[in-house]
Specification:
Shape: elongated
Number of strands: 2
Bound molecules: zinc ion
Strand order of the largest sheet: 1-2
Helix content: 40-55%
Order of helices and strands: HHHHEHEH
Radius of gyration: 21 Å
Length: 180
Amino acid sequence: MDVPKSTAWYRANPERAKANCDMWRQHNPQKVRVFMDRSNARRRQKWRTDAAWRESRLVSSKKLNKLRGPVWWASKKRKVLERLGGAHCVRCGATDLRILEVNHIGGGGRLEPRSGLELYAEIRRGVRSSQGLNVLCRPCNSIDYIERRFPDLAGRIQVVWCPALPAVETRAVPALPGKK
Ligand SMILES: [Zn+2]
């Protein structure tokens, strides 16, 4: 069968083809976003309407999660947090992955049109910029919320890790969250 020259080239040079593809994705985040939105929308529609497919996906994702395990998830999460300036809380320096979260600076997380998982995936792939996001631990995230809700309490609450318990690893807090 006759394939177009370009297709033949892509098949003959899979490595370079992938590099080209990655390069294009990097330079066209807006277009990638549109493609992803379209395919996500199609999948959501299918999820709503196709009960059998939904059921099969649920079962397989449960199996997959079991196979992947917590180590796999931790490595994915670390990658996301590294993109946002490091896997540590910018307020208190906590480095325990279990309690670290992606925070929307100045609030607005609930206005985010995508789910948490989608957001994580986009940050990891570099489709979503780190603008307006940073890493906080769960307790500092609560304080962040309280400070926005009750400005008079700003600067009055602080997370202090108990020095008597060396099991908790923390990292020195940089003066300012790093600019990307
Ligand atoms: Zn913290």
